[in-house]
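Handout, section 3.2

Students often ask what a structure token actually looks like in practice. Rather than define it abstractly, here is a full record for Probable periplasmic serine endoprotease DegP-like. The first block is the sequence as you would receive it.
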Amino acid sequence: MRYVYGITSALLVGGTALALVTQSPVGAQVAQNEKSEIAKVVPRSGAPESFADLVEQLQPAVVNISTKQEVTLGVRLNPFAGTREPITQEQQGGGSGFLISADGYIVTNNHVISGGPRGEAVNQVTVTLTNQKEYKATIVGRDVASDLALLKIDATGLPFVKFADSSTARVGDWVVAIGNPLGLGSTVTAGIISAVQRNLGQGGAYDRYIQTDTAINRGNSGGPLFDLQGNVVGINNMLISPVGANIGVNFAIPADAAIPVINALRAGEKVERGYLGIGIAPVDEDLAAALGLPKDRGEFVQRVEDGGAAAKAGLKRGDVVTKVNGKDVTPQQTLSYIVANTKPGTRIPLEIVRDGKPMTLNAVVGTRPPEEQLAGTNFDPEEEQTLPDDPSGAADTTIQEALGLAVQPLTSDIARSIGVDATTKGLVIGAASANSDAGRKGLRRGDVILSANRTPVTTSDALAKIVSDAKKAGRDAVLLEILRRGGPSAFIAVRVKP
């Protein structure tokens, strides 16, 4: 290393001599890598001789996470009992995490403690400290959109670490990753920040990452990325590699993006994000040519949800949104990112181009629906789906426990995808338990519940109330009106679990 630096210094001196000969000797602009200028910004202590003292202090706060999950692979018919039984298999997984309090709160990635075909929460989480003590952990909360989760173990006096102000992170800063890659146990790697605010083109509120060349592999997920002050500047999340292992292109969730989510989960609150209710597409080269607009400036409105914030503001299909709340919409600063990070209820201007003419509309930002509801825009009735382990509300819990069904409001987009009239009102079944009366009677994903006990239902709350009222009246069944593609609606009496 000294040899390389020595050669570099000699080259720099030679380059400087050449510059003095060929450029004006008075008031000349110097090269960015002029030796005297570099000495000002890189003192001898800039690169530590060793990370050992730093690691010794931080390593006890980093934990190993292992998980177990019972996954339903399908169903089989029991010929003796005449019933359908689920086929299950135990899957194991895990990753890394870190303690943020002395009483056992642990931050990790949501995908570390998720399993099954629909990302359900795992059945069992075990946390192992560097002193080899093991604890059963409970899942305090998890957020799919940010890929963050908060765990809790029953212990006190634990070592913990604090978050950094990641907005001050700079390209070239030293960083250290501690985690449990490839099942090897606690492992330390070091590198630099390669980029900040990196957009990977995924859209949404959290498509901004710290990129680092610090070695990160499978099992590092959820572990901390430290700055040289020992603070967590990011949460290791993913890597890009053609071979599935580290090649120096790795990404961490910035601390500043994670802190509000973690605080909300710790307080038992739902994370709220802004939402306009539109489907969008980038203004690529072909679209720009067709519209006579600059490339990569703004986003094209493909779809406007009925009754949503965008529809109320007057936004139409075919509009191009160029600015949101004064911020340019670009591939690096997408419309989804700007809106999702705007507080619901905020009134914002939307600068658009309609039929070649600029216009300004004003919208009141709505609240982004749960991710599973948004997935309904691409609802596939043939896709296998199991009941969620953590229903999104009390009504959904009531319906799932009593009827063995997961339901969601029927939108015009879902209606079209399942082949029913787009004006149909009701609840679409997302999943039906094979062990429920509803499942045994043939109810399945994609069926629409039009009414319950002859009362129209369009929300989970409405169906849950009818189920509760039936129980209070001493009835052990409800009459559901079911609509299925290609046929008229039919009434089916479904038993209610007590």
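Discussion prompt for tutorial groups: Residues 50-271 form a domain with the Thrombin, subunit H fold (CATH 2.40.10.120). How would you have guessed this from the sequence alone?
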